[in-house]
Structure prediction request, 162 residues.
Amino acid sequence: MDEELLRRLRESSGLRLDREGRFFHQGTPIEHARTVAVLHQGLHRAEDGRWATRIGRDWGYVDVEDAARFVRRVEPRGDRLRGQLATGEWVEIDPATLAAGADDALYVRLPDGERARLTRAAQLSLAPFVAESGGGFELRLSERVFPIGRDGGREPVRSQDA
Prediction:
């Protein structure tokens, strides 16, 4: 296929990922569970740093409203966190990267350095471990306390004491 045509097709994929982790194609929600799973599994950074998704050998750019990665489930493990991503994969999460953003959404930094938004269910599962402290909030796991910082958007997530 002509490289210029291929570039234009990738640019005009019509795919969008909203701040709740829902995919849309040309404004229409994609609701088929397997299709959504494949789109999440195919998410990657293209060579130019933009988000794209791959299905088989083909890929196209994705307009990402907020974060491209989502943690749908969190399990405290001692003084660490284990999270299940939208792809189904489980990863270890450094609790010191937990940060609050707009509309009280919580974010973490994944082991690969990417920023991920916690789904509402994942956030609720942390509620028993979050406490108010000095005008802010902190995460209490085992004997350790992690201040919950402010999310810097697309910049690296940092805790208040970083």
